[in-house]
Amino acid sequence: MSESLPGGVVRTDMAMNDGRTIRYYDKVDKGSAARIAVDKRPVEAPAGIGELRLDPLVNEWIAVASHRQHRSFLPPKELCPICPTTSDVLTEIPDSAFSVVVFDNKNPSLNAAPAGWVLPELNGPATTTPAGVGKCEVVVFTDKHDSSLKELSEDQIALVVAAWRDRTKEISKLPNIVQIFPFENRGVEVGVTIPHPHGQIYAYSYLTPRTERMLAVAQAHKTKTGRVLMDDIVSREINDKVRIVAENAHWVAYVPFASRYPYEIHVAPKKRVPDFAELNDEQAAALPSITKEVLSRLDGVYGIPMPYMASWHQAPVALGRDLLGLHLQITSVRRTPDKLKYLAGSESGVGAFVMDMAPEQSAEQLKAVKL
Amino acid sequence: MSESLPGGVVRTDMAMNDGRTIRYYDKVDKGSAARIAVDKRPVEAPAGIGELRLDPLVNEWIAVASHRQHRSFLPPKELCPICPTTSDVLTEIPDSAFSVVVFDNKNPSLNAAPAGWVLPELNGPATTTPAGVGKCEVVVFTDKHDSSLKELSEDQIALVVAAWRDRTKEISKLPNIVQIFPFENRGVEVGVTIPHPHGQIYAYSYLTPRTERMLAVAQAHKTKTGRVLMDDIVSREINDKVRIVAENAHWVAYVPFASRYPYEIHVAPKKRVPDFAELNDEQAAALPSITKEVLSRLDGVYGIPMPYMASWHQAPVALGRDLLGLHLQITSVRRTPDKLKYLAGSESGVGAFVMDMAPEQSAEQLKAVKL
């Protein structure tokens, strides 16, 4: 099954051995786009479903996914599960070459809803415990094992952006999905188990704590000022100028005024949109170059690949869409070439961040990188 | 200056070279309690003060303390800054032996208020940036470098408890202090820079995010049910029984129903108190044994010292004291003898925790440890 997407991209879906879906994203003019390779691995039992337990101290859902304990942990390169399939190794991706693929996670933290599932009312410790509903997908950025997002061509990153847009649109239509979160972790320092360039998408059946908080704060700001908080935040960064590290016609990248990590960069569209689904083609086309630049600046600070977490914050699917804005938050725990920032007592225990480097100082370093 | 404290403890204060205070806590019947050693190090300039920047996306204060960048990082054992002073090395502690000491942090993230300081009203990105006010102290648990909290005698831990009670009482009286947070980080895995057994106390001039959230949730629970949330939580754990790992006449220790880490233990008094200042002598006397037991069980799971963060959650100084309860939260990022849990995209990006181990499973392991 193939489908045409904006920007000359075609998506082809195939079923995996256990019924999961793999989606190939290809440039439409690329001959190799006929994706017909079959998943020849023996059928395995589908993953179980976990549960959502309420932490009543703070009314936050914790996804308990004890069926995930035995997932891959730093497999040797020749057994990478997201490289293309070869005659020797049958991987998650049946084809022998690919551009960008998105497939359903084999060991999802969150899974499809059983019949009649509803998220229960909050009721302190007496709250009932529903199944762990949601959807987890893996986004493979390239078929090259030894690469990284910033090393890809802008055309290749454009395919990743096309996948983010498409997945956000499609997952938004699924029942029980409240919020969609694309992200990438890079580096063993942040626990990455598979170095092959890839990200993930978590779609939650509940509002996550940070998004709930952003929504409440943006709502209060709107009530008080009549303005959208995200617009005021981006305006302040543009006016202050000193923390801006990259910019093009549609996007601006800055070290936020109150960053939490030694290196933290936010990338926001100049014209606010709630999520990838509502990004227009011009905005999408301008995203690869600034993504590449920002990640290159990050790696350039110490001339070493920086561990990072890249979080694409989006408005919830059906809530606060005029209040919250799509933006990328990149955070790195590296504070010097040989030291990491750890979330210690203050951050982990009570959520109070302490930053040892002034945001203007790290912005200066990021700007000074020769590309 | 000496002062008698409950439980036969005497506190003796001395001035350090730069005007900071060091407090010795000793058993009153111990001959060595005459603390008169003088800090003979050359006087250094006092640490600067940082600032509090508002993260307007979530209305949270970030303490920017760029003057702290050059603090000690894993000094060699012979240069440990919190060992007793010797003829060769002058440390933070002038005496040649000690029981428990608490001194003002040399490189505090938060510092005493300049004249006229007030925490500004929140106003989105237009919020003003006040000085980083608060107080940071270091609590040294023993003069033995190669030890740990669980290896200390109950009498020695009782001195640590006496220090927590005394510090909470005294710091509560200082101007501009909203919340007091004693904690301990242990293990290089969680970024500990000085292995000598010690904890810290952070006193904030603002409500920290987790405490603010706990307060709002507890207030809503009280309004809805007429009951105190912490009481309902402890009752549920006692009724469920299966996650209780230690208990005595005054305290109960459990893996919480919705734990966030592979090994997470909460220790709460059976009779709720808001903070250490209001703990009674019987409760205080029963705390060392359960502390020792719980930490010994944690280390016993894999027979190796577990990295952990121990957070003593307390009610704020002047707010919600009938709603929140003192409790210890111990979390460990070790999930197997050779694997750590990392806070990856879901946890770091949007605050949504995923737990790969059922709380009942880790409770079972903790209970099975032979002490």
Report on the architecture of this protein.
- The structure is a homodimer of 371-residue chains.
- Chain A is an alpha+beta fold.
- Chain A folds into 2 domains: 2-207, HIT family, subunit A (2-Layer Sandwich); 211-368, HIT-like (HIT family, subunit A).
- Chain A is 23% helix and 24% strand.
- Chain A has helices spanning 154-172, 209-225, 229-240, 281-300, 345-350, 359-368; strands at residues 2-5, 9-15, 21-27, 51-55, 60-64, 100-104, 134-140, 179-186, 198-204, 244-247, 251-254, 263-269, 308-313, 327-332, 334-336, 339-340, 354-355.
- In chain A, helix 1 packs across helix 4 (281-300).
- The radius of gyration of chain A is 21 Å and the shape is globular.
- The two termini of chain A are 41 Å apart.
- Strand 17 (354-355) of chain A pairs parallel with strand 5 of chain B, so a sheet runs across the interface.
Question: Could you outline the blueprint of secondary structure elements for this entry?
Answer:
The structure is a homodimer of 371-residue chains.
Chain A: E1 2-5, E2 9-15, E3 21-27, E4 51-55, E5 60-64, E6 100-104, E7 134-140, H1 154-172, E8 179-186, E9 198-204, H2 209-225, H3 229-240, E10 244-247, E11 251-254, E12 263-269, H4 281-300, E13 308-313, E14 327-332, E15 334-336, E16 339-340, H5 345-350, E17 354-355, H6 359-368
Antiparallel strand pairs in A: 1-2, 2-3, 3-6, 4-5, 6-7, 7-9, 8-9, 8-13, 10-11, 11-12, 12-14, 13-14, 15-16
Helix pairs in contact in A: 1-4
